[in-house]
Every structure is written in structure tokens, then in C-alpha cells.
């Protein structure tokens, strides 16, 4: 990993004008607004009317999760109709134009006020006409979100698809896959997936990762990366008209040289039968580390690796949407990264040797 410190600057013009940033910036604006709106209700209501559970009493899903995912799906249906979206909650599409008021819609890059509609982003060399997967976690760190802990975020990662005509399900292998939760079986049907009409995608998440964005209202921060162009942190959320205005940002380079001590981040499963083996490995996992952090959001953990706030990260049992954005952000900061697919071992480390050790141990 590079020894450079965080550098203050602005987003490069090539990054700022990138079509994937324009789309993901709009998605993060939608998610950011709804997380803040729902946060007011969650502060007063912690009941089944707003909050449900997935695999255990602490594995929470809120109405906010489903609504944000629905709006994202509805947005992509109009802006990138031939792409595949894989979402954690499997929520049906909701049209953002019908949902939001005109004032908010005018802040979106992809909204055309003259027609009152979302406009598909023009195809160019950097973004193919078809064949992209959008892996979305509407709220990564839902338990934190519900309890008023700041470490929660919207996450979207984009990769090229492995297209296969006539395939009727989603094949999941060790390098990629879909999941309905950290401890649940891989997705083998289309309940949580929007798919192109001419076929479907196999080995979901196994293609080349192109773009990642993590937006956290609680931490008032946005992290993003484009393959080959670096990783960046923006204070607050991306503003409107990003394609024409300078955006202050810091280029991320991982752990600065000379920083004392070593900190590892990880996470644990919600269910005891999965958590017990994780805890049993914790002593060996922490070899050569001074302390451990567990913030409850894999996306934010990986962004902290990119920032150099922690040295390394390792966790088993993630869904692809958990690391889709954060893994690329860490990778573009100079970290060595291994993506575990659904349920496998995912890690980001400051050396190739430590990456292999973490994967072997966890």
C-alpha cells in the first residue's frame, strides 16, 4: 500500500464527468434524503410497523431499506434499462419522478425538467450499452441506523456482467453471487433481481469492477472510486450538477507511513451457530494487531482502510452488495483486496502477505 497521506484537492474532471458517477451521485442523493427522512420516525418508533427482522432479532430491515431500494430500482429502470440490478431486499421498482417533488428532482443530474422525466445516460467507451450489474445495499449497517449509531451508509458498486443468453437463473460461485442476507442461502431465482429481457446473468459479481460509491449521512461523508482513476472522499453528499462544478475531495492512499500501532476491522454473524467459529478464530486473526474495530458496516470498514484509519479488514459471510463499493474503494487506495463472493472470505490488507494470512485464518 502507498505510504502517501491524504491529499486535499478536487475530484478530477474525468472522474467528475464520468457517467457512472452521474448516475450513482443521483442514487446517493435519493438514498441520503430518505435515510434522513426515515431517521426521524425511527428515533421515536422501534416497532414492527417500521422495523422487521431477517435472520435474527438483531438482523434488522426497515421500511427505509425497502423504499430506498425501490426508488433505486425505479431510477435504474429508466436511466439504464438494459442493466441488471441486484438489491439486498428484493423490493419492487418505484418511480422517483412520481415520488419526489419537483424541487428535489431538479437537483438530480439525470432529471430533465423540460420533459419532467429521467434521461438515459448516453453510451460511451467507458460505459457499455448493456452488460453492467448494479449491486445495491440501500442501508449497510441497518442496526446502527435504527439505534441512532452513525455508522450506516448507502452502497452501490458496478461491475461488468458475464452475459449468457437463455440462462434462467443466477449461478453463484466462489468469486461472485447474490444473497438475501449474510447468513441466508445464495439467490438462485430472480426475486431480488431486475434483469435484461434477452437473458440473465450468471456468476453475478464475478466481472470486472468499474465503480463504487458509499454515502453516509451519519458520518456526513461520501467515498467513491473508479477503476484505474483512484479513490476519493468527499465531505457531505455529492451536490447537484456534479458534471459542471468543482467538488472538493481528498485522494485516498491508505495507511500513512510511520503511523503507530495496527488496527484490524471485522464483523460477526447475527446467528450463534455461524458466529461461534468466527469468535474461535479471533485470537489468531488478531496476530500482530494492537486492537480491533467492529463498526457494523462492511462498506464503511473498507472505506476506513482506504483512508488509513484502520490497517486491514477481514470478514466471512458477506453478501456481494456488502462489499461491492467498498472493496473497489479500498483497492483503488492501494490496498490488496480479495472478494469472497456470497458467504466467502473478504479482506483488504496493506500487504499481499497479510491479505493471504487473513484469508487463510478467517
What's this model, at a glance?
The protein has 362 residues and is an alpha+beta fold. It has helices at residues 13-16, 19-42, 63-79, 96-99, 102-105, 142-147, 272-280, 282-285, 298-307, 320-332, 352-361, and strands spanning 7-10, 51-53, 60-62, 84-87, 111-112, 117-118, 132-140, 153-160, 162-165, 193-194, 199-202, 209-216, 221-226, 230-235, 248-251, 263-265, 291-293, 312-316, 336-338, 345-349. The two termini are 21 Å apart.
Describe the protein in words:
The chain has 362 residues and is an alpha+beta fold. It folds into 2 domains: 13-47 and 56-163 and 206-252, Fructose-1,6-Bisphosphatase, subunit A, domain 1 (Fructose-1,6-Bisphosphatase, Chain A, domain 1, 2-Layer Sandwich), CATH 3.30.540; 263-361, 3-Layer(aba) Sandwich (D-Maltodextrin-Binding Protein, domain 2), CATH 3.40.190. The chain contains 11 helices and 20 strands. The protein has helices spanning 13-16, 19-42, 63-79, 96-99, 102-105, 142-147, 272-280, 282-285, 298-307, 320-332, 352-361, and strands at residues 7-10, 51-53, 60-62, 84-87, 111-112, 117-118, 132-140, 153-160, 162-165, 193-194, 199-202, 209-216, 221-226, 230-235, 248-251, 263-265, 291-293, 312-316, 336-338, 345-349. The strands form 5 sheets. The chain has a 9-stranded mixed beta sheet, sandwiched between helices. A 5-stranded mixed beta sheet has the order 17-16-18-20-19. Strands 2-3 form a two-stranded antiparallel sheet. It is globular. Mg(2+) binds at residues 88, 137, 139-140, 322. GO terms for molecular function: inositol monophosphate 1-phosphatase activity; metal ion binding. Its cofactor is Mg(2+). Keywords: Hydrolase, Magnesium, Metal-binding. It is an enzyme of class 3 (hydrolase).
Amino acid at each position: 500500500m502507498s505510504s502517501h497521506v491524504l491529499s486535499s484537492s478536487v475530484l478530477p474532471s474525468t472522474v467528475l464527468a464520468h457517467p457512472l458517477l452521474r448516475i450513482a451521485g443521483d442514487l446517493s442523493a435519493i438514498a441520503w434524503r430518505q435515510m434522513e427522512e426515515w431517521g426521524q420516525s425511527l428515533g421515536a418508533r422501534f416497532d414492527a410497523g417500521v422495523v422487521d427482522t431477517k435472520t435474527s432479532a438483531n438482523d434488522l430491515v426497515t421500511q427505509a431499506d425497502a423504499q430506498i431500494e425501490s426508488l433505486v430500482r425505479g431510477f435504474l429502470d429508466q436511466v439504464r434499462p438494459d442493466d441488471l440490478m441486484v438489491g439486498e431486499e428484493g423490493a419492487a421498482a418505484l418511480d422517483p419522478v412520481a415520488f419526489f417533488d419537483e424541487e428535489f428532482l431538479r437537483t438530480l443530474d439525470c432529471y430533465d425538467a423540460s420533459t419532467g422525466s429521467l434521461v438515459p445516460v448516453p453510451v460511451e467507451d467507458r460505459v457499455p450499452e448493456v452488460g453492467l450489474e448494479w449491486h445495491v445495499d440501500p442501508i449497510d449497517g441497518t442496526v446502527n441506523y435504527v439505534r441512532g449509531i452513525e455508522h450506516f451508509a448507502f452502497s452501490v458498486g458496478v461491475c461488468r456482467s458475464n452475459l449468457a443468453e437463455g440462462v434462467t437463473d443466477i449461478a453463484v460461485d466462489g468469486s461472485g453471487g447474490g444473497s438475501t442476507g449474510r447468513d441466508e442461502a445464495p439467490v438462485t431465482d430472480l426475486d431480488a433481481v431486475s434483469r435484461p429481457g434477452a437473458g440473465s446473468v450468471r456468476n453475478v459479481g464475478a466481472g470486472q469492477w468499474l465503480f463504487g460509491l458509499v454515502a453516509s449521512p451519519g458520518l456526513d461523508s461520501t467515498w467513491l472510486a473508479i477503476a484505474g482513476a483512484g479513490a476519493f472522499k468527499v465531505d457531505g453528499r455529492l451536490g447537484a450538477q456534479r458534471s459542471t462544478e468543482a467538488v472538493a475531495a481528498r485522494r485516498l492512499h491508505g495507511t500513512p507511513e510511520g503511523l503507530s500501532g495496527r488496527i484490524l476491522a471485522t464483523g460477526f454473524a447475527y446467528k450463534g451457530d455461524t458466529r461461534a467459529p468466527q469468535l474461535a478464530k479471533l485470537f489468531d486473526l488478531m496476530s500482530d494487531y494492537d486492537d480491533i474495530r467492529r463498526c457494523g458496516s462492511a462498506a464503511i470498514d473498507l472505506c476506513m482502510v482506504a483512508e488509513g484509519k484502520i490497517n486491514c479488514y477481514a470478514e466471512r459471510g458477506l453478501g456481494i452488495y456488502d462489499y461491492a463499493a467498498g472493496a473497489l474503494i479500498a483497492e483503488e487506495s492501494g490496498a490488496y483486496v480479495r472478494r469472497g463472493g456470497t458467504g466467502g472470505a473478504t479482506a483488504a490488507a496493506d500487504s499481499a502477505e497479510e491479505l493471504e494470512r487473513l484469508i487463510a485464518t478467517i
